[in-house]
Amino acid sequence: MAEDKSMKPEVQDEESVSILEEAADMKEQAKKTIQMIKEKAKEEDPKLTSSLTLRTILGGDFLTADMVRRQIWLFVLMVVFTILYVAFRYQCQQDMIAIDKLEKEVLDAKYKALSSSSTLTEKCRESHVLEALKHNKDSLLHIADQPPYIINVPE
Predict the structure, then answer these.
(1) Membrane-spanning residues where (predicted)?
(2) Interval 86-96: pLDDT, tens
């Protein structure tokens, strides 16, 4: 049993050394892997050629992050103008609807005024007034049989 106890520390030392070596190797490999990932995963876009072709436009390659960052205020301004355009157009349509409604009301009021005016004119005629007075027997007024007299007054 004494031999078993003496062998165990040596085996444990060899195992711990090999585990430490493996850990160091894994740590080194992890560093290399992280370095490779950092090199591949850059935030900058690759520089494109200065010529725009149909393929680059349709593919969207010309919309790089750098170009979008430089033009962000232009995009914001375009969105604001679009929203304002839609809002003003909506308001204009609402105003036009209100104008049409008011024009119809004015036309109805004109027709009512014309109708009232014609009814008033009809009721104010001399013949109708005399007829109404005769019918009610309120007055002795009647239509004159003789023409009016002309009286000349010298000055």
Answers:
(1) 72-90
(2) 999 999 999 99
